[in-house]
Amino acid sequence: DLRHPGLELLPAMAAGATDNLHFRAAGIDSYAITSLFMHPEDDYAHGLDERVPADAIVPALDFWYALIRELTAS
Questions:
Q1: CA distances from 26 to 20, 48, 74 (A)
Q2: pLDDT in tens, 17-32
Q3: Maximum Cα–Cα distance for the chain, whole Å?
Q4: pTM of model > 0.85
Q5: Cα–Cα distance between 44 and 49 in angstroms, integer?
């Protein structure tokens, strides 16, 4: 990522069910990627007060824009 030179990419596995559950059941390899970059202490995923910091939204949108542009470039 040009905004974060040297950022180490780490593979991870989510143990919970996702929309990919249906693709995997059909034999289609499926992967997920996150666009939210935040400190672990700001992660309230799947809790009663699930939320992300407001300042994480614009960088997430920028990430998706750059990724989609890169993947669709000819």
A1: 10, 32, 30
A2: 677 888 888 998 887 7
A3: 44
A4: no
A5: 7
